[in-house]
Amino acid sequence: MLQQGGVNMDCGELKLQIEAARQKLYQLKMDYNGYLLHPHVIKQSMVLDDLINQYNQVKIKKPMG
To answer: Measuring CA to CA, how many Å separate 37 from each of 45, 53, 57?
Structure first.
């Protein structure tokens, strides 16, 4: 499990956070009329990227097999 701010993160928790971050990114994109280069949209995209990278790291360390 990966640690985020001292809290153990498993795949299920990360999936929930990824989905919430994805929805927030979509809403920000809509709020800024589809302007993907707005700083808030870019920042949220980076948050989502980080969560996806964390998820991939957990999957590498703990394969489903």
So the answer is: 10, 21, 28
How many Cβ atoms sit within 10 Å of the Cβ of residue 56? 11
Domain count, the chain: 1
Task: Identify whether 2 is part of a domain.
Answer: no
For residue 17, count other CB atoms closer than 10 A to its CB.
Answer: 19
pTM: 0.80
Cα distances (angstroms) measured from residue 7 to each of 2, 3, 24: 8, 5, 22
pLDDT (tens digit, 9 = 90+) per residue, 1-52? 445 544 457 899 999 999 999 999 999 999 999 999 999 999 999 999 999 9
Q: Find the domain containing 39 and state its range.
A: 15-61
Is 3 contained in some domain?
A: no
